[in-house]
Amino acid sequence: MRIVIVTIFPELFVPFLETSLLGRAIQKKLMEVDVRQLRDFTDDAHRVVDDEPYGGGGGMVMKAEPWIRAVRELSVPGKTRRVMLSPRGRRLDDAKIRELASRPELLLLCGRYEGIDERVRKTVVDEEISIGDYVLSGGEVAAMVLTEAVSRQIPAVIGDPASVENESFRNGLLDYPQYTRPAVVEGLEVPEVLLSGHHAEIARWRKGQALRATREKRPDLLAGSAAEEGGPSSD
Ligand code: 21W
User: Fold this and answer.
1) What pLDDT, in 10s, does the model give residues 167-201?
2) Which of 47, 95, 159, 211 lies 20 to 30 Å from 221 when distance is taken between CA atoms?
3) Per the structure, how many domains does the chain have?
4) Per the confidence metrics, is the pTM higher than 0.85?
C-alpha cells in the first residue's frame, strides 16, 4: 500500500518513518510513504498557505487553493482514498484501520492553525477522521497514528503473521498481564501458573485475565460482544 501525506511540516515525519518496524517496512518496499510540502502547491513568491477567517475571530485559516491543487495533483481518481485529519472527524478505531488498510492508496491531509477552508472538505475529501476528544496542534501526529496502525495490518510488516490476529482488539478484549524476568520485583511474584509449563492452563488463565481486565477497565468493549465465555479464574 501507498500513503501520501500533505503537511507544512514534512520534517516531523523523518525520524518517525526511519525508525523500527515502519522504517524496515519502507526499506523493504512493503509500504510506500511519501510526505509532501503543501507550500509546493502555492503560486505566490512567499508560498502563503494561511489567511484571516471570514467573519472574524482569532487565529488563521488554511487557504483552500493550495490544498485543492495538492490533492488533485497527488491523488488518482477511483484509487486514492482522501482522508482529512480533523477534530471534527469520526473517531478512529480498529474497524476503520482495517478498512483503510484494505485500500491501495491513502492521501492524508494534515491541517494546522484553526483549520482548513471548508471548501476543501466539500470538493476533494472523502472522509474526516479524528483520533480522539482532545486538542492537538495539527493533523500530523494523528497522521502518524493512522500510518503506524495501518502498517501493522500488513502481515509482512510485523514479521509474524499470527500476531496480527492475536493483537488486542482483534478479539475485542484488552491484553492479559505480562511478566518477564526476574521472578520477583518489589516483592511481587510472577503468577505460579505461568511457571507451570501447562500450556492449556496458561491459555485459560490468560483468557480469564483478559476478560477481567476488560470488565474492570473497558466494559464498553464487552457490551454486545461474544467474547464473554470460558469463565475467568483467580490470581
Ligand atoms: C485543534 C485545529 C483544534 C482546530 C472554529 C473556530 C487532527 C486533531 C486534529 C486543531 C481546533 C485530531 C475553532 C484529535 C485534534 C487537528 C488541530 C479548534 C477552533 N473552530 N484528532 N475555531 N484532536 N487539530 N478550532 O486536535 O488538526 S486529527
Assistant:
1) 767 789 999 999 999 999 999 999 999 999 999 99
2) 159
3) 2
4) yes
What is the Cα–Cα distance from 224 to 143, expressed in whole angstroms? 30
Most ligand 1 atoms within 8 A of CB, residue of 84, 85, 140, 141 to mutate: 85
CB of 69 within 8 A of CB of 41?
yes
Backbone angles phi, psi at 37, to 5 degrees: -85, 120
- What's phi and psi for 106, nearest 5 deg? -115, 145
Burial class for 55, CB neighbours closer than 10 Å (0-12, 13-18, 19+): exposed
* Residue 92 Cα to ligand 1 middle (Å): 15
The label of the residue with cell 515525519 reads 13
The closest-lying atom of ligand 1 relative to the alpha carbon of residue 89 is 28
Please check whether residues 121 and 44 belong to one and the same domain.
yes
Q: If DSSP codes are grouped into helix, strand and coil, which group holds residue 140?
A: helix
Q: How far is the CA of 9 from the centre of ligand 1 (A)?
A: 16
97 belongs to a structural domain: yes
